[in-house]
Design brief:
The complex is a heterodimer.
Chain A lengths: L4 E3 L1 H9 L4 E5 L3 H6 L7 E5 L10 H4 L8 E4 L4 H12 L5 E4 L2 H7 L2 E7 L5 E7 L4 E8 L2 E5 L6 H9 L3 E6 L11 H8 L2 E4 L12 E2 L6 E3 L4 E7 L8 E5 L3 E5 L7 E2 L7 H15 L8 E4 L16 E2 H7 L8 H9 L9 H8 L7 H8 L6 E2 L2
Parallel strand pairs in A: 1-5, 2-3, 2-4, 4-5, 9-10, 10-11, 11-12, 16-18
Antiparallel strand pairs in A: 6-7, 7-8, 8-9, 13-14, 14-15, 15-16, 17-20, 18-19
Chain B lengths: L2 E7 L6 H11 L6 E6 L4 H12 L2 E8 L2 E7 L2
Parallel strand pairs in B: 1-2
Antiparallel strand pairs in B: 2-4, 3-4
The chains are: A alpha/beta, B alpha+beta.
Chain lengths: 378, 75
Amino acid sequence: MTKVNPATAAQLAHHIIENKPLFVLDVRNEDDFASWKIEGRQVEIFNTPYFDLLDGVESILSQLPDDKPVIVVCAKEGSSIFVAELLLKAGLKDVSYLVGGMKAWSEHLEPIKVGDLQNGGEIYQFMRMGKGCMSYMIVSEKAALIVDAARMVSAYEEFAHRSDITIKYLVDTHLHADHISGGRELAHKVNGAYLLPPRDAEEVTFDYHALEEGNELTFGGTTVKVVPIYSPGHTIGSTTLLVDDKYLLTGDILFVESIGRPDLAGKAEDWVGDLRNTLYSTYRELDEDLVVLPAHFANVSELNEDGSISARLGDLFKRNAGLNVANEATFRELVSINLPPQPNAYHEIRLVNMGLLSPAEDEKREMEMGPNRCAVHG
Amino acid sequence: MIIKKVVDAKGQACPMPIVRTKKAMNELITGEVLQVLATDKGSKPDLAAWTKSTGHTLLESKEENGVFIFMIQKG
């Protein structure tokens, strides 16, 4: 009997980014599957809990393709190996299992280059496919600024190390409620500066540098200019970054197919006006040719051909429903009523990001598990 | 409650807790109670879903000092 092939989260990410056909057999229980799963434009997925397959896989064989690879996934990997071996015995040829399961998928970061800077340098999008989160590394002359860093800081460290890059600045566009920030930890490790909008930092327990409008950041030999634009609405401190006069890092305020939600600190009512003002006034005054680089995607349909996420600002004014609600009362209703459920453990995550809670590594992982629900679809 | 049989799956990762629970259940008769001990976090939702789908009854599910304790009555 041939052995089941292990497939790493990185291999899976490449497979999805390259748009190759794939069949995912998810053997977690139905509730876990319903709340969160692997997605991709060419991904076909089928769920049967592993405990329904203990006596054999005959019941599902007719559901599985023989013309594309099958990857079996579970929460951590044990059950997926068990089921994948049964599938091999049953005669299926191209079967692998996801190493580390959905846990590994949730934590994998895939760097994708999204553009060049005017005077040399690049901007990379670190795609966290499993959660639909993006962070950014802006590189100029061996110096880097990272925006909205995820908890898995080794991904940035390894990337920087490979190209001999020094990480100078770690910026969070806002106090995150959906994932634990790696900004402070990484700043500490590389002796860089951690910046946070002061209005989101009123309760933090650590020293930080203020990310404020008017205080431009420059770094690298060719001087990349990073301009903070105060853009409240998702949080009271939310700040957008204009990088190199070309890229607009919108954080959780504006996404490609949706807009941010103003309720993650229980203050939906307070912040609706701010959100409206940011999206309908502040952003309207910006150059329509700017490339929007958000901190989230909600749907794989948003992926570009190269697997990255970006859009021209002017195009979003035309096609993003959340930017096209003329009536203010309708807008208020859209962003404050009938919102999707809050992200897992969002309150605790905020406390961690403020330094008020210091959970162990596996608790942090547990907090971040599951889907991301930061967006409002118009 | 009379516990007819105990499955100690402490330290084992899925699928083993359910594999062993299923095997033990086959040796009981309707109405008898099996106790399952596990430390794997995933065993809690999985065992609940499994008992539901197999027609047994999960009488009790608690956690003591990091050990999950399940009481399952054979259906």
